Amino acid sequence: MSNITEILLQLKDKNITFDHENISECDIRHKKSLVLYGKLTYTPDCCPNCHATNGIVKNGTRQSQLSLCQISGLNAYLSLTKQRFYCKSCQSSFTAETPIVDKHCFITNRLKQKIMDTLTETISETYIAKQHNVSVHTVRRIVDKVASTLKVNHNTQLPQHLCFDEFKSVKSSDSAMSFIYCDALTHQLIDVVHDRKSSTLLDYFARYDTQTRKAVKTITIDMFRPYIQISKQVFPNAHIIIDPFHIVQALNRELTKHRVHVMKALHQNNRRLYNKMKRYWKLFLSNTDTLSSYPYHRFPLFDWMTHTQGIVDYLLEQVPELRATYDVVHQLRDALHNRDFDRFEEILIWAKQEAISPGLRRVLRTFKGYLPYIKNTFIYHHLTNGALEGINHKIKVLKRNAYGYRNFSHFRNRILFMCKLYVPYTVPSTSLVA
């Protein structure tokens, strides 16, 4: 008989004999389903109770209906007739077992694997349960069981280059923000901590031995000062790096705030100029080398042919109070892009005499306080928090699709499951690090 059923369903057990001629269609739980039939029998080696090898006889059968993966969009089941055995030595009975399903379980391991594959996506557990015809509690049990094997082992070595960040936590957590960190080279998530308080993180990292913590070379963070204090205490040999994205973000935010402030004054007096600044706001944030000076085109709201560089020059000429803030922001961004720290430091000093916005002046004072760590940003320019920001985005999408989580422990398990179940084998390239 052909083994096409075993191959298609991946139910490879030589002790199961499938009835290839008998496949029925019926309604199960008000859904059209396919039911396959098979029989499980073999000669047991010994009694699982007393380990006697003789005196074991067949003692009827037991019917089990096992859930399979869907076939052609229909729910599928295997009606498996299991052989029962009786041991004359200890007068106990037992049922034949198969590796395709766990003992006392009616969901095949292949279906569990399919659920695990789906759980790595940003999909709610309720939707996954509905798609695989199982209960939500079954999906949650799979998450919690498998995630327990993915949790960090504090006896292992830490990566030499780490990224620190945080994300919005759940209501059951003690803090509004939860801490998350990953490997800066392989971009693999390491662990999630329920809050980002200094005392909590100091206790957490103290679980690693001293030699492991001394081996950490760099830590990339945003401008959250407690991370600096923690890093100095826990990782004495690590260089602290400010993530370049947060530097650019702080500059762009103040430029945008100042532009909006200027536009409010124009709203009543010069509506045409207001509309131009509102429509072409992205050009103020564009890199200067991406603005074109040729060819000329027609642009909405302009009565003459111009180009993107001409639009920016015209708007800054009409609103001179925005010019100084615009120039300082873009010169700092260019210095960061060109990895010229001396130029970056020079602009911070020179900007004191410029008529920049109060918000930008505050940001520049912050940069001066973080200047030693910003210098490391120029040295280790390949180490950023970009991968960790991507993980945080997946976490936000997961929370949105699931309409939120209440239990932090289960939420953490789902994050570990989503990010650590399938870890690609990568060889870290030390050449990326200065």
Please bin the fraction of helical residues.
Answer: 40-55%
Low-confidence runs of at least 5 consecutive residues: none
State the end-to-end CA separation: 64 Å
Percent of residues in beta strands? 15-25%
Q: Quickly count the helices.
A: 17
Main pleated-sheet profile: 5 strands, mixed
Tell me, rounded to a whole number, the average pLDDT.
92
The geometry reads as elongated
The ordered string of helix (H) and strand (E) elements is HEEEEEHHHEEEHHEHEHHHHHHHHHH
Radius of gyration: 31 Å
By helix and strand content, what is the structural category? alpha/beta
Number of strands: 10
Written description of the protein model:
There is one protein chain. Among the domains are: 4-106, no CATH class; 245-379. The longest helix has 26 residues, at 244-269. With 434 residues, it is α/β, with parallel strands linked by helices. It has helices at 4-9, 109-119, 125-131, 136-147, 198-205, 210-214, 225-234, 244-269, 271-279, 281-285, 308-318, 323-337, 341-350, 358-369, 371-379, 386-401, 408-420; strands at residues 16-28, 31-40, 56-71, 74-87, 92-95, 161-168, 177-183, 189-193, 218-221, 239-242. The protein is built from 17 helices and ten strands. The protein is elongated and about 100 Å long. β4 (74-87) and β5 (92-95) form a beta hairpin.
